[in-house]
Every structure is written in structure tokens, then in C-alpha cells.
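Dear colleagues,

As part of the handover before I leave the project, I'm documenting each prediction I ran so the next person doesn't have to rerun anything. This entry is a single chain, and its sequence is reproduced below.
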Amino acid sequence: MEITTETIKALRDVTGVSVMQCKKALEEAGGDIEKAKVILRKQSSAIASKKSDRALGAGVAAAYTHAGGSVVAAVVLACETDFVSKNEEFSQLAYGIAMHIAAMNPTFLSRDDVKEEDLKAARAVFAEEAAKIPENVRAKAIEGKVDSYLGERVLLEQPYVKDPGITIRELIDGAVQKFGEKVELVRFERLSVK
């Protein structure tokens, strides 16, 4: 399949990634835009890990108010330079993550934030539920339930409300690829009336 300028432009419009990265991904995907998106998504996590040791020097705070003021979510999204932090797309990313937090009510930013007491409490609840499961698979079942429980409560692992095909971590990794510098969610808060 021939890769045209229009195809490259269409992929760039959807992903926001550089023209050269879009062209290379399309070449690798044989001109298939959907396959190229997957290729770019895989590349974004590799790019993010390469930039993980860089210092954060700028960022933006964003807030989202939902349901007539009954829920408010706020985030601090950090980056390396003012150039990126002042970019409208970067601000929209922070706003979108704040909207996600208002909707999904995560408890932890990452698995590193989960305390041992939280894990013990979850395991105790799931141990009661798994009491009727055969002994030889009970521990694996409990750990599977704990893993699923954490996946629902850890922000970086939740599917993004605007695009359930990607997680918040993948969304941020995509921003690293798009902006060309380290991007990190530093802090979040969610307040609700109820």
C-alpha cells in the first residue's frame, strides 16, 4: 500500500506525533493507519522510559468540576520546560486527566503508593470470598482478585474515560512521545460533597 502525504497527515492529526515518526510507523505497518497507531503506542512507552531520569522543571495544574459542583478533581502534570507547559495541548491533557479522576475516583497514583496495610485488608476480604475455591488454586485466585482490585483503583492503570483502549499511563507515555520530553503526573486530588 502506498503511503501518501494525506495518510501521514491523517495519522499525525490523530496522534499528534511528528511527521517522521508517523511516516516510519506507516512504513512498518504497510500503510495501515490502525496498525501504525499501535506501533506508535508501543514506541511511546520505550521513549518514556528513556526520558524517565530527566528533571522536571515546569508543569501545569488543572481542575475539573463535575455534576453541578458536587465533585472536583485537580491534577499537577509536570514536564521539563515552560515551552511544553504553556502548550494548549498539554493543558488539555491535564484537564482530561482531571476529568477522568472526577469520574473514576482512583485511590492511588501508582502501585508504589499502595501500602502493605491496604494489601492485607484486600487479601483478607478476598480470602473470605475464595474460601470455597480448592486449596491448590486459592492463593492464585486471591492474588488475581487483588490484582484486579488494584487495577481499578490505581490511576495509572485505569482505562482512560475518553478512550478506554488506553490506560492513563499510556496516555502520559504518548504525551512524552508527542512533546519530546518527560511528562509525569505528580499529584492528584478528588473532592466530593458525598
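The mean pLDDT is 90. The chain has three domains: 5-50, 58-109+154-192, 115-153.

All the best with the project,
I.
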